[in-house]
Amino acid sequence: MAEILFVTWDGGGNVPPALGIARELMTRGHGVRFLGHAVQLDTLAAAGMETVRPREARDFDNRRDYSPLAMMATFGDRGLGRDLLRAVAERPADLVVVDGLMFGAMRAAADAGLHYAVLEHMYDAAYRRGILGGPMGLNLRLRRLRPRAALDQAAARLLATIPALDPLSEPPANLRRIGPVVSVAERQEPARPTVLVSLSTFAFPKMRACLQSVLDATRGLGADVVATTGPAVDPAELIVPPGVEVHRYVPHVELMPRASLVVGHGGHGTTMQALAHDLPVAVMPMDRLTDQPAVAASLEVAGAGRMLRKGSSADRIAPVLAELLTDGPHRAAAARLGAEVRGLPGAQLGADAVEALLTDAGTAPGPPAARR
To answer: CA–CA separation, 266 vs 198, rounded Å?
Structure first.
């Protein structure tokens, strides 16, 4: 069996795909470790993962509001790259799986000749042409991290999304589409229509105000509403309308089987999980520099959702929610996409892709782990 090191960061929605693939690999007998930010250690350990404590990585906590420059410094953090090299020196790995935004770690792996893969937890189009083609890509190039070369040097890039929303006309040779890593539960028909509201676990600017506008828009909707705030917003800071439940955290897989509609921020993971349950999605992107606007636009084009402008008033949001709660072509479109999501089980296909790479580990540059 093999030794695999996952390198992640405290971004919120980027972690579940890595955990899903890691759990599948562990059931197949492989050894798995996680290196990330110090604030993640307890959560990763609670998820049953062995962790590596970072020594040189920048401090990061997704409950704080970071400037765009601070975010770019985190993505280009060479300290996390040095932690990666130390972890492999102390205990060799057959394969390193690096989060698709951790270019400091990616560059360290590439320069050291390690056998590594990149986990892309978003649309490839938004990733390569959007994010890397914008300010973040420029910043990474100025830091001499050569982001596109780091992607091209990877043994594989594991793309966790579906073709209908992220078609690839000329996919790179090392790209492997594995599908979304999501959990799906059996449908539970609610007595009344139910709206799940979950904007983000990340502390984007104006999160509380946006969440309040969405909650206000549900007044008079004739539906039950369940909202999850995550660590970014204190429920005590919200004015909660009658008939609305607000929680810090409830696993979405427990809520979506009885939901009729999801209101999100365009996070890829939440959106794919909603579609996996055949649910239309109203999307209010929280950050225009991420893939969130692309997710929202793709749902509109597919007919499975609507985009809401950040900062929209309750009066503008309410009719959109009312429309999406009705029966109509948007439900059929969501169901079509949901069938595609379920047909590409990301955890299993991701583990298959990793195991395929392990057969090459013995000839890859860098120190492979001792085989057991």
So the answer is: 10
pLDDT digits 0-9 by tens, 292-321: 999 999 999 999 999 999 999 999 999 999
Average pLDDT over every residue of 203-226: 93
Are residues 3 and 90 in contact, defined by beta-carbon separation less than 8 angstroms? no
% the chain with pLDDT above 90: 81
Residue 341 has pLDDT above 90, yes or no: yes
- For 53, other C-beta atoms within 10 Å of its C-beta total 11
Q: Which two tokens stand for residue 284?
A: 């209010």
At residue 279, what are phi and psi to the nearest 5 degrees? Answer: -105, 130
Identify residue 192 by its one-letter amino acid code: R
pTM here is: 0.91
Question: CA distances (Å), 115 to each of 77, 106, 108, 333, 363, in order?
Answer: 20, 11, 11, 40, 9
SS3 55: coil
- Write the CB contacts of 250 (distance below 8 Å, at least 6 apart in sequence): 226, 228
Tell me the torsion sign for CA atoms 132, 202, 249, 271: negative
Place of tokens 């893969």: 117
Average pLDDT, the chain: 93
Determine the pLDDT at residue 362: 45
Contact 321, 263 (CB under 8 A): yes
CA distance 269 to 119: 13
Answer yes or no: are the C-beta atoms of 334 and 304 closer than 8 Å: yes
3-state SS, residue 98: strand
Res. 189 pLDDT band, cuts 50 70 90: confident
d(CA 304, CA 278): 9
The phi, psi pair for 64, rounded to 5°, reads -95, 160
pLDDT of amino acid 312: 96
In the beta sheet, which residues pair with residue 247? 228
- In whole angstroms, what is the distance from residue 68 CA to residue 233 CA? 20
Interatomic CA distance for residues 25 and 189, integer angstroms? 34
Taking the alpha carbons at both ends of the chain, their separation in whole angstroms is 6
Which of 29, 37, 28 is CA-nearest to residue 75? 37
